[in-house]
Amino acid sequence: MLQRFLLGTRRDFKSLSEQEILALAISSEEDDARIYLAYADGLREEYPNSAKIFEAMAEEETTHRARLIDMHKKRFGDRIPLIRREHVRGYYERKPDWLVRPLGIETVRAQAAQMEQQAHRFYLRAAQQCEDADTRKLLGDLALAEAGHEATAVQLETTHLPEDVREAEDQSEKRQFILTYVQPGLAGLMDGSVSTLAPIFATAFATQDPWTTFLVGLAASVGAGISMGFTEVASDDGVISGRGSPLKRGLATGIMTTVGGLGHALPYLIPHFWTATIIAMIVVVIELWAIAWIQKRWMETPWSRAIFQVVLGGALVFAAGMAIGNA
């Protein structure tokens, strides 16, 4: 009872019998085949050639499972014990990223490579623990097969994923990232940085009270972030536009809007008015430069146009805030 309390309900791998090792390998191969098919289903619409690769990998996992079942029948009969990876302590786990839509092509490729490495290590360890010669040979062969899956993947990519197709898929992945995260985040950062300039600096010059200015800036930033986030979520569900999850876009917009406003509100935590104001102005310049850089880096906007748009808009709003604050 004490041992169960200390170690939990999971079995230690060293305690597994050879039958249980075979059963664990069978269930693992079955799960991996299903995961690869889930990857294929998730990629088929946007990355049909990569989907074919994962379908072929699923077929190979199914072949491994059949060989393991044949060995179990030969040694232990038709009744296979129910033992899965979550029943074994220290056994590798699979993150449920195949449930996330849309699937990121590079993320999926990296996860598949990790799956093969983990399976390779499992078969090596399992072979060392088995004494039956035929079973040990089968597990060793599967370890070599898993180690060779990287070469198999390269071969499959050569067949299904020529250079021009892979480049097109990578471009599609980059475009999806821009539409889901960069574009909404940039819109939020611009709104938060520029739209809050007027109320913050108007309050600053009208009251010359840093704490009051900070409170106004905090309220304006948080309020704008909530408003922009909900607007992004409600404006487009992403189904027709292909811009991705509205929740992800809403979070990107809302968070970046708040960050943009807080950037030049936080300096007013400094009790000295002119020190806080000068630092806030410096922060505004940094924010506007960051917006221009993001436009150039991700939206391919020429530097001259990006700087002109951001600086002009920021200067006009800042001037409006100063004029109203000094009125």
Domain unit count: 2
Query: How many separate helices?
Result: 12
Are there runs of 5+ residues with pLDDT below 50, and where?
1-7
Work out the strand percent. under 5%
> What would you call the structural class?
mainly alpha
Oligomer: single chain
CATH architecture of the largest domain: Up-down Bundle
> C-alpha Rg, in Å?
29 Å
Helix and strand pattern: HEHHEHHHHHHHHH
N/C terminus separation: 78 Å
Total beta strands: 2
Largest sheet: 2 strands, parallel
What name is given to the CATH topology of the largest domain?
Ferritin
Notes on the protein architecture:
By secondary structure, the protein is mostly helical. The protein folds into two domains: 2-161, Ferritin (Up-down Bundle), CATH 1.20.1260.10; 167-326, no CATH class. Helix content is 77%, strand content 1%. It has twelve helices and two strands, in the order H-E-H-H-E-H-H-H-H-H-H-H-H-H. The chain has helices spanning 2-7, 18-43, 48-76, 105-129, 133-147, 149-160, 163-195, 197-207, 210-235, 246-263, 273-298, 303-326; strands spanning 11-12, 88-89. It has a two-stranded parallel sheet with strand order 1-2. Helix 3 packs antiparallel against helix 5, helix 9 packs antiparallel against helix 10 and helix 11 (273-298) packs antiparallel against helix 12. It is elongated, with a radius of gyration of 29 Å. The N and C termini lie far apart (78 Å). The model is unreliable at 1-7 (pLDDT under 50).
